Task: structure prediction
Amino acid sequence: MTVEQDKIFSKPLDQIGDFRFDDTVASVFPDMISRSIPGYGEILQTLSKLARKAVTADSQVYDLGCSLGAATLAMRRGIRETGVKIIAVDNSEAMINRAQSHLQAYVSDVPVELVCADIRDVAIEHASMVVLNFTLQFLAPEDRDRLVTKVYRGMCPGGLLVVSEKLVFAQPQTHRLMDDLHLDFKRANGYSELEISQKRTALENVMRPDTLEQHQARFAKAGFRESSLWFQCYNFASMVAIK
Result:
């Protein structure tokens, strides 16, 4: 499958609107993600390993904010139990349509139900594993606690929640250092200063990251008995929480 290169912000724009997961973004999303998120491939590989350990027979697995289904595919490769169904949800019709073709390219005994809906409206039931892969940061801050609590209530005992996010840091020098390292990562992957600047402007109003401490407090408030950071590269991280 040919991956189209991300050139969305490569030319000066008279007006920069809020970032949207529309068909233009969906068409270049794999390239955009791989060049923008350090450690993204490692996170996907580990999702497969986590699914092998966490998913139980006759349960459901949720990929909330599934975009093109990369996390869904990773988990499906790792699942060995029977009677498991993955429910992959995204509110972008463009993403869901492309996810369908991506999923059809790989043969598996694990069925996937693709749902075009707001993840805040989807019921979580009998879940042994739930993934929010760079999704929570796009929700309004007041909705994040409610969603994580809903996930907790819909999980089986021992169920695993995986949350991957961009982080902010309370210490200003640390924040600047991690931000600079991320910008260098994007430059090294071929993004120009214009592209970096215009995309940052587009994301300002739609992506509001939390600190690691905010995530940990949210897991505890929802009822998760344990949580831990398992991966971090610069200001990008992935966490696990266990019911």
